[in-house]
Structure formats: structure tokens, C-alpha cells
Amino acid sequence: MKTQTRAKLLLALSMAIFGTLAPFVRNIPLTSAERALWRAVLAIVLIGGFLLVTRQRLPLRSIQKALPLLLLSGMAMGINWILLFEAYNYTTVSVATLSYYFAPVLVTVLCPLLFRERMTKKQLFCFLMSTLGLVLVIGVGDLSGSNNHLIGILFGLGAAVLYATVILINKKIEGVEGIPRTFIQFIAAVLILVPYVLIEGGNGLGSMNTKGWICLLVIGFVHTGLTYCMYFSSIKEMTGQNIAILSYLDPLVAILISVFVLQEAITPLQIVGGVMILGFTLYNEIGFTKKKGNNHETNV
Questions:
Q1: How many angstroms separate the CA atoms of 62 and 204, rounded?
Q2: How do residues 3-56 score in pLDDT, each as one tens digit?
């Protein structure tokens, strides 16, 4: 019982930390690609140190077999971060987060097409209601006089597509689980982000102030490296249903920070839409994880 309680606390804490990402990202005076690159680099350093300290060996044979999928998913993860960070630049954190959390809905729709999994009536209902929630979030925003809000939503949905891509690819990866898999994926993310940043001409580290450096170190070491280690250490002791429920602390914290800390506006209909997206997605996931067990993906 104590082990499960500790695991729940670790998972809840990691999800809450994930939810505080946006304000730190916004205070880093770099391009979104540079933020994503250095986030991955710092996470690799921390997770690599964690693997050394805990004496965990990388399953090299399994990694070799799954290398194409690991590289592809890691690259998708890197682009996903860029799009999410751009969403933060153009719209409120709450709207960007709700757009991003449409990813599980996309997975529900794509799984029957890609893996020949049967879509149940419950899954179809949850998909339709979550989609209606997204329409409320998009349709009732203050789009008049500014296209930034809509652009931010599109970036958020683009990030959701890449997030869903990572989840779907991970379903095909066998023999490489948890922290070692994430470690390799971060390396792959760096491989695609380095040339992108060089082509973009980004070289803003030298001009960063103290606040920017602190925020960059926090999102690299804390929001990425530490939280991923906490996440994968905790889910070993938990059921899929508990993981699904506690994972929704992430968007909840993000929305609360958006409204009460950043003082960003959110309309009543957007709140209704957000509740529909998160509520029906969670309702669908709980039923799914009861059948599938601990096959739950973290936020990327």
C-alpha cells in the first residue's frame, strides 16, 4: 500500500509540474526550435546521469531492432514541442493546452484505421462529444480583430497530431520501455532539431539574461528530465485507470495557471468546451485502460 501511495504521489507531482511548463517557456528569449533543442539536450544529460546512477543498462539489441521507429518517434516529439511552444506564443495557455489535449481523441480515431482495432459505440460517442468541445473552444474565442488566437489553436492542433503520432508509433515499439526509450527518443529529437536550428539561424544563448537561463534550465532538467524519470518510476506500481485519471492534472494545472496566474481570459463556453474535451477523453481512456492495463503514454 505504501508503495502504491508513493507512486501516486510521484505521478501526481510529475503531472502538476508538466502543467506549469508554459510560463517558463514564455520567459525564454529564444525561438521555439531553440527552446525545444535545449530542452532535449538538458533532459538527455539528466536522464543519462539517472541511468548511470541507477545502473540501468540500455537494451541495445532491442534498440537496434526498433531504431527506425525510435528515431521517427523522437523526431515527431521534437517537432511536437516546436508547435506547442508556438501555440503558447499566439494564444492563451488554456486554449493552447485544450487544443493540444485533443491528441488522445485523434488516437481513438486512428487506431481502428492503422491497427484494425474496433471502435466501440462508447469511443465514437466520446469522439463526437470531445470534437464538439473543441468546436466550442475554437468557435467562441475572440477571433475578431486578431488572427493570433486562431493561429495558436492551429499550432496546438498541429502539436496534437504529432503527439498522437508519437503515441501510435510507440504502440509498435517492442522491447524498449520507459526511461531508456525516452532517452533514445530525446537523442533523435536533437538529431532533427540541430539542423533545423542551424538553418533557422538561431543562436540566442549568448544574449540570454539570467531569467531566461533559469527558465531554460528548469524546463530541461525539471519539466523534462526529472518529471519523465518520476513518471516512469511511478507507473510501474499503478493501474492504467489511475494513471489516466492522474494524468489529467497536467491540463488542469495549466488552465488554472493561465486564468489565475497569467490572468488570461477564458469564456464560459470555452470552459464548457474544455470540460467536454478532457471529460469525455478521460471517460474513454478509463474504459480503455481497464482492458489494456498499463499501456499509457505520458505527455510529450
A1: 38
A2: 778 888 999 999 999 999 999 999 999 999 999 999 999 999 999 999 999 898
Which residue shows C-alpha cell 475578431? 144
Per domain, the residue ranges of the chain are: 2-292
- Phi, psi (rounded to 5 degrees) for 238: -125, 160
Helix H or strand E segment including 36: helix 32-53
Place of cell 510529475: 14
Task: Give yes or no for a contact between 19 and 251, defined as CB atoms under 8 angstroms apart.
Answer: yes
Separation of CA 241 from chain center = 19
Identify the CA nearest to 30 among candidates 39, 20, 21. 39
Q: Which three cell numbers stand for residue 239?
A: 493501474
- Residue holding cell 528569449? 29
DSSP class of residue 205 equals: G
- Provide the CA 154 distance to its chain's centre, in angstroms: 16
User: CB neighbours of 55 closer than 8 A, spacing ≥ 6?
Assistant: none
Residue 10 grid coordinates: 510521484
Confidence at 222, pLDDT banded by 50, 70, 90: very high
pLDDT greater than 50 at residue 144: no
Overall average pLDDT of the 179-195 stretch = 94
Whole-prediction pTM value? 0.89
Average pLDDT, rounded, for the chain: 87
